[in-house]
Every structure is written in structure tokens, then in C-alpha cells.
Amino acid sequence: MLDPVVLSARLSGIRERLADAARRARRDPASVRLVAVSKTFPIDAVRACAALGQCDFGENKVQEGLAKSEATADLSLRWHFIGHLQSNKAKKAVAFDTIHSIDSEALLIKIDEAAHAAGRTVDVLLQVDLAGEATKFGATPDQLARLVDTANRCTAAQLVGLMTLPPAVDDPEAARPYFATLREIAERLTPRARHAAMLRELSMGMSHDFGVAIEEGATLVRVGSAIFGEREYHA
Ligand SMILES: *Cc1c(COP(=O)(O)O)cnc(C)c1O
Fold first, then answer.
1. What pLDDT tens digit does each residue of the chain (235 aa) get?
2. Which atom of ligand 1 has the smallest separation from the CA of 100?
3. Which of 139, 132, 134 lies closest to 85, judged by CA?
4. Considering the domain boundaries, does residue 215 fall inside one?
């Protein structure tokens, strides 16, 4: 059971560090949104966090995320899907508000069609694999131009930006070049998008490196263990 006093202290600590990082980069702290990654944690933890003013939550399993979203429907929270998405889950995944992990044209089209069929719109980000690791998901940088072209034709799936997950490293500074590269890629792709706003969001930075990510332009940071504590299992 998560101690509410501990949770409150952690959350305010993170909000302070987030604001400090934004100020270091001469950015408005309000331009960075904290996504609380509640994967593996129970609905009570989400409710406790929401009671402290947290509105955005992230999950990496469709079923688990939707169950939490339904169980907290009274709170009007925003749900972000941040895990690898199989195309056979597209229909269900469009119940999320934002999907951070679009990594192929086929998946993007599936999401657009599923959202259209459900009569809703869903914000999407293109996940970019900057490390070229065979085990990692994400589109390679050279696939992005075509993905943006496809996003230009979508109506229900609305592109809002890029996401990356750098290789796991202990030193947050080692992740900085990946964050800087994602920002440069977004800038380079912007003229190709139907609207500049389609590349406005940069989803990057986790518990150990969100400060560096914000210095490099992150607008969405995905923070789990620093809020909720260590996970029992790694998903
Ligand atoms: C689990 C997860 C996070 C949060 O990781 P922490 O280290 O617990 O902050 C962020 N992004 C993705 C894609 C994740 O799967």
C-alpha cells in the first residue's frame, strides 16, 4: 500500500525538479506535462495521485490501462498508451487519449480507421528508435518522412509529436544526445507536416533522466518509479 504522505512528498519533489529544469532551459514550466506511469500499480495508487492534482497517466498494456481508465471514469483523467502496440489491439487502444508508440504506417492507418469507426479522435506520437537496437521498438529516423506523409492524410488519428526511449544508461547525461537528436528531427520534419502543431510534442525522459530531457525540449515526461516506487516486476 502506497503511503499518501510519501506519495505527496515524491510528487511535489518531482514537480519542483521539473520546474527547475524548465527554468534552466528558459522554458515555461507549464510547457512540460508530467505523465505518471502507473503500470503495475493498482487503481488506489492512481486515485491517490489524482487527489494530489495529477491528471495524466501512462500505461504500457492495453487491457490494464483500459481497466484503470474505466475504474476512474468519474475523475476525467487523461490516459496515455506508452507501450509497444500490436495492431490487433488497435480497436481497443483508441480508447486512450494519446498513443505514444506509433512505429509503422500500417499501425498508424489501423489506429486512424479504428478511431474513425469509434467516432473519436486520438492524439498520436511517432516512436523513434535512435539507438538502432534490434530489440527496441520504434521507427528508424529515415522512415519518419513517410510516416508524416501518412499522418497528413489521417483524420481521426492526429499526429502531435515524437517519442523516444533511449538505451538504458545509469548516467542521465549519456541520454542527452538522444534527446537533442529527437528535437532536431522534429524541427526538420515540421515543414513536411500539414500543420506545425503536428510535431509540437516531444515525449522523452523517465524517472532518472527527465531533468535532462526537459533541458533538451521535452514537453511530455513519462515518470513511473520516482512517483510510485519500484515496480514488483518489470514490464
Ligand atoms: C515504464 C516506462 C516509463 C517509466 O519508467 P520509470 O523509470 O519507472 O520512470 C517510461 N516510458 C516507458 C515507455 C515505459 O515503459
1. 688 899 999 999 999 999 999 999 999 999 999 999 999 999 999 999 999 999 999 999 999 999 999 999 999 999 999 999 999 999 999 999 999 999 999 999 999 999 999 999 999 999 999 988 766 789 999 999 999 999 999 999 999 999 999 988 889 999 999 999 999 999 999 999 999 999 999 999 999 999 999 999 999 999 999 999 998 865 4
2. 13
3. 139
4. yes
The pTM score is 0.96
63 to 138, 175, 180, 184: CA distances (angstroms) = 21, 31, 33, 34
Strand partners, 78: 56
What is the whole-number distance in angstroms between the Cα of residue 28 and the centre of ligand 1? 24
Residue 85 in contact with ligand 1 by CB distance below 6 A: no
What is the 38 CA–ligand 1 centroid distance (Å)? 9
Distance CA 65, CA 43 (A): 10
Where residue 89 sits, what CATH number does that domain have?
A: 3.20.20.10
Number of domains in the chain: 1
165 lines ligand 1 (CB under 6 A): yes
Which of 17, 37, 164 best tests ligand 1's pocket when mutated (most atoms within 8 Å of CB)?
37
Ligand 1: which residue has its CA nearest to atom 5? 224
Residues spanned by the domain of 31: 4-228
